[in-house]
Design brief:
Elements lengths: L8 H9 L7 H31 L4 H33 L6 H26 L6 H22 L25
Helix pairs in contact: 2-3, 2-5, 3-4, 4-5
Length: 177
C-alpha cells in the first residue's frame, strides 16, 4: 500500500504543492524586466553585430548603435505586450518541477511574441510578410527570456537552511511540515 492511498485527495494535493513556488504578478514583472535587460544589453547587440557584420562590415560603426537603440525602444513595447501572456504561462507552469521545461516554455513564448509583433507591424505598414527578419529578431528575444527564466529559478543560498554553497541551491528544497 502506498502512502498516497491512505491520504485524502486534499492531503495528496497539499503534499504535491508543498515546496512549490506560486507564480505572482511580481515574478511576472521581474522576469520581463530581466529578460528586457538581457535582450537590450547582451543578446540583441550580439545579433546585430553578427548580422550587420556579415552583410557589410564597413557600415558597422553607423548602423550598430542605431540597431541597438531601435531594439531597445521596440523591446519596451514587446515587454508590455508580453505581460498577460507571460503571467498566464507562469501560472500554468506552477506545478511543473522541471526547470528546463519552464525555461524552454518562456523562451518559446518570447520568440513567438517577438516574431508576431514584427510581422504585425510590417502588415500594418502595408508591407509584405518579412519572416526572415522576424525570425532573426525572435532568436535574441527567446535567448534573453531563457537566460532570465533560468536565473529567476535559482534559489538564494540564504533561503535554504543548511546550504552555504551556491551550487547546492539550484533547486528548491522540499518543504518539511
Amino acid at each position: 500500500m502506498s502512502i498516497d492511498a491512505a491520504m485524502t485527495p486534499r492531503q495528496t494535493l497539499r503534499r504535491m504543492m508543498d515546496g512549490m513556488k506560486q507564480w505572482t504578478g511580481a515574478e511576472t514583472c521581474e522576469l520581463i524586466v530581466k529578460a528586457y535587460l538581457w535582450l537590450v544589453c547582451v543578446t540583441a547587440p550580439a545579433t546585430a553585430l553578427i548580422v550587420i557584420g556579415v552583410q557589410d562590415a564597413g557600415v558597422l560603426p553607423l548602423f550598430f548603435p542605431v540597431a541597438v537603440v531601435v531594439t531597445a525602444i521596440c523591446a519596451l513595447g514587446g515587454g508590455v505586450v508580453s505581460i498577460p501572456f507571460t503571467h498566464l504561462l507562469g501560472k500554468s507552469l506552477e506545478r511543473v518541477r522541471s526547470r528546463p521545461i519552464r525555461t524552454l516554455a518562456h523562451a518559446g513564448l518570447a520568440g513567438a511574441l517577438a516574431a508576431a509583433c514584427i510581422e504585425l507591424i510590417a502588415l500594418l505598414q502595408g508591407e509584405d510578410l518579412i519572416w526572415p527578419y522576424s525570425l532573426v529578431a525572435s532568436a535574441p528575444a527567446g535567448i534573453a527570456a531563457a537566460i532570465a527564466r533560468w536565473r529567476l529559478d535559482i534559489v538564494k543560498p540564504s533561503t535554504i537552511p543548511g546550504t552555504e554553497k551556491p551550487e547546492l541551491a539550484d533547486e528548491p528544497a522540499p518543504h518539511v511540515s
